[in-house]
Amino acid sequence: MSPSPLIARTVPALRRAVDNLRKRKATIALVPTMGALHDGHVSLVRLAKRRASRVVVSIFVNPTQFAPSEDFGAYPRTWKSDIAKLAAEDVDIVWHPGVEAMYPSGFATRIVPEGPALAGLEDRFRPHFFGGVATVVGKLFTQCRPDLAIFGEKDFQQLRVVTQMARDLDLGVKVIGSRTVRERDGLAMSSRNAYLSAEERAIAPALYRAMRHSVGQIQAGEAIASAMAGGAKAIKAAGFALDYFEVRHAETLAPVTSRKDGPLRILVAAKLGTTRLIDNIAV
Predict the structure, then answer these.
(1) Which residues hold beta-alanine (predicted)?
(2) Is residue 37 a contact partner of residue 89, using CB atoms and an 8 Å limit?
(3) pLDDT (tens digit, 9 = 90+) per residue, 179-206?
(4) In sequence order, which residues have a C-beta less than 8 Å from that of residue 170 and are 6 or more positions away?
(5) Is 143 annotated as a binding residue?
């Protein structure tokens, strides 16, 4: 049986634990999470272990990235299961602060990202989101002081925002994206999949199928606008309320009109019942 990781709940305790790793000349990888861990998170931890000698996983449901109408209170919290998964992967430290440790009384400083944070994708529908993400990830980087940090590609715009922030602010952290882990039917693994009813879960893979179909059409030479229109129609016909279904430049997230505009990525966000799903794939 694998030993349980050290669990730090205060910044001083975390700093002592990280300092002990540094004394042993360890390279440190951070895997930021909000808990409710699934196989996608485990894949991030395994990549972190391949890239560094020691791994820190943070578990913190960040209130500043939730709007008042969103699911902060209902967001799944599965602490015992999470720790069991992390112990099985031989994680060294779990950083599990309370809200008061991350945002103590008088907290008054926030990071306001631009660039990919203003691409007109998630930010159109969740204008509060990337400010909350950038602020908490900035704090996690300075608290944990990792050499590298692993983020899943499922939240692709978030990956671009965090990468830009780390570079712009000279945080000394290499941000690495890890491929999206999918269920057998193509649905991207997500903690929010637990919200889907059985009927909705059967419908949900339509997002991935629509993306794959549009990619095939674009690669076959069909105009981007036409290929994407067909995909959007299929998503709506499956029962989703579509927020966006777009092709963007894979690095800058700028709009594109043809395959010649650079490496491309299809990104989608849509609601099925009360559950909002996001996904993306390369073209």
Answers:
(1) 65
(2) no
(3) 999 999 999 999 999 999 999 999 999 9
(4) none
(5) no
